[in-house]
Design brief:
This is Kazal-like domain-containing protein. Helices cover about 10% and strands about 30% of the residues. It has five helices and 19 strands. The strands form seven sheets. A four-stranded antiparallel beta sheet has the order 15-16-18-19, with no helix packed on it. Strands 2-1-3 form a three-stranded antiparallel beta sheet. A three-stranded antiparallel beta sheet has the order 5-6-8.
Amino acid sequence: MYQERCISNLPLNNENIIKGKCPRDNPVPSNGSGLPPLPTSCDDPTICSALAPPPPGIAEGPVCGPSNAESPKSYPTYCDMVKAVCKSSGGPTSLPRDSAIKASPGECGKGNGPPKPQLPPSEPIFTPWSPYSQCLFTDKLRNCGEGTQVKNRQVAPYDDFRPVRQVEPYETGASRPCFVACVNILTGAPEGLCPEQSLCNEVDPVCGSLGAGAAKEFKSECELNISACQASKVPHKLYSGSCDPEDGSALRRYCEEAGPVQVAVKYDIEKDGEHCVGEPVTIGSCGDLLCEGEAGTCCKATKFEQIQVDVQCYSLSTKQPISQIKHVYISAIECQCQAGSP
């Protein structure tokens, strides 16, 4: 090292020398794209290092870039511009990770000609609404009764990352009341107070029945559950939407004459931080059908088929799709009265 410094006619400073091999820099945590994780705040000092680096011409010194005003704005550095664009476009998730934000070197108005006027902030565009969550009950101990369902969506960036107007809270989040009756663990019958149907403030029709009665259209699943509670019946949601006219007959019919009954089912489960939802599908069922004979005789399925559906799983925290799975239903194709328990 001394010879190299000497040949280059450079002084040797002993304070800059340590014994042993030079230490390696700690690697930056990777998220699979070669960039550090994206922070959650536009003011986070690491936000610029989590994005694609700017071209050399604008990496240092002042730059002229986009703003909420009618004309571009001057920024002390490219990173200052990134933080401003982040705040005006909806947050860190709206920033590009694989390319730099367009800007020109130097302050605005000092280049070739006057700066081009900017349009007013655009209307925001949004991702689709997530499905409503399961009922979040007020009574956390019993986990039943009145509660609230929530859904949300996010601001989606434009391809050119143009500024958008300030987003109102109601545009990215919504909620509605819900109700699930508390039941007796021994009999399965609803118990406790039933609220008024005026609790339900959203129209989202479902087809269902009170106990084993006839199929009927309800304004919402909330109204179905309250109606069943008031009638001391168990609610059965057949499917979302208005009832098919063929579904208006009574559900209790004789086993071998009417079975199997076609029942609409839908996979809708929350567990392990995920909310998984499948499309409604119709399967054959021998339940709720009558048998003639002694008391111990019941209607059972004697032949089956498998029906497979695709299920989309969403993250409960981000409401973004994360995986797809398959679910298999066992559908009855023949019913027969047999002795024994159901």
